[in-house]
Amino acid sequence: MTLATPRAAWPTLPAPAAPAVSLAQVTARYKGAERASVDRLSLAVHRGEIFGLLGPNGSGKTTTINMIIGLMAPSRGTVQVFGRDPASEAARRLMGVVTQETALYERLSARDNLALYAALYGYRGQQKRQRVAAALQLADLAQVADKRAGTFSGGMARRLQIGRALLHSPQLVVLDEPTLGVDPVQRADLWNHIRALRDAGKTVLLTTNVMDEASALCDRIAIIHGGRLAAPVDTPAALQRGRGAVITVAAEADHDDLAKACAVLDADPDVTDVTATRGPSPGLYQVLVTAGDAGGVTGKVIMHLTAGGVVIRDVATRTASLDEVFLAVTGSFQAAS
After folding, report:
1. What is the C-alpha separation between 57 and 66, in angstroms, rounded?
2. What average pLDDT does this structure show over 241-253?
3. pLDDT interval class at 90 (50, 70, 90)
4. Helix (H) or strand (E) holding 165
5. Contacts for 192 with CB less than 8 Å, ≥ 6 apart
6. Which residues contact 68 (CB under 8 A, 6 or more apart)?
7. Would strands 220-225 and 228-229 be described as parallel, antiparallel, or unpaired?
């Protein structure tokens, strides 16, 4: 069942040239703040994609979302949703928002929660009942429609929120930490629901602090830090390739010899970072190296270490994880095994 919309009820979308969301040189500064929360930020969310907005606490991520959904206006620059002012009624009717807080009426059933919001959107009678039934089906909650929302698990509550946000057939769905507080099984189920939104032609903008979630779901990702883009907007795979390789070396060496060899290695222009940690026995170490390109760099790592008197027991090379990319571009990188 789909949430069909009466043709005359909601605004039509502008020409396909207009992106789902666009920010052009946007700055946002709260009254009395020493610095801007968002600083000359520009990005575009394409129609029909799952777009991830990532950033550490205090990065400007929440402020950016608030401007996109029309809760605050930028100090400078422009924000548009399908070519419209986000605060306009036309733009609001094109958006559905799921916040971090559950924000459900726990004493009401799932059906009554949805019916209440359907009425707020102006639906009445048979049309309201149809849309509530469609939302329950979409959220996979039809079998528990008459149970109180307060009895729902975290995953069920999230699905009810998503169903509620889709009552009016929005074209843009904003999900703020959609799997916060749900267990791994429920999270996988929610991932499928989010992918289904994209497959149905919706645009999904989500925030998350879970990097494997961003990697699994997002077509493209923007990482912001200090109110600015910390890396070019790109696919998760491209961001990982851009970070380069993580080379793990199991080594045996005198501590001073290893320190000198690592210093030489760190000075190599192809090497981004070097970290050495003690192994399980005296004289054994694990050396973690990040480098711009796996091709040929592994050989250079071996050369630098052996030239310094380090005995190499094992070498493994892999692509940097999205966690490592995130930590690197936000200024707190440490290679992980």
Report:
1. 15
2. 87
3. very high
4. helix 154-165
5. none
6. 21, 23, 79, 81, 86, 174, 205
7. antiparallel
| Assigned token pair, 140 | 């996979």
Q: Could you give the strand order of the β-sheet that contains 311-319, starting from the edge strand earlier in sequence?
A: 271-278, 284-291, 245-252, 311-319
Where do the domains of the chain lie, and which CATH numbers do they carry?
21-230 (3.40.50.300), 240-329 (3.30.70.260)
Tokens read off for 284: 């054994």
Q: What is the pTM of this model?
A: 0.80
- Residues 6 or more apart from 260 whose CB is under 8 A from it? 308
Name the token pair of 306.
Answer: 């052996």
Q: What is the DSSP string of 42-53?
A: EEEE-TT-EEEE
Three-class SS of residue 213? helix
Q: Is it the case that residue 5 has pLDDT exceeding 60?
A: no
Q: How far is Cα of residue 264 from the mean position of the Cα atoms in its chain?
A: 37
Q: Count the neighbouring beta carbons within 10 Å of the beta carbon of residue 186.
A: 18
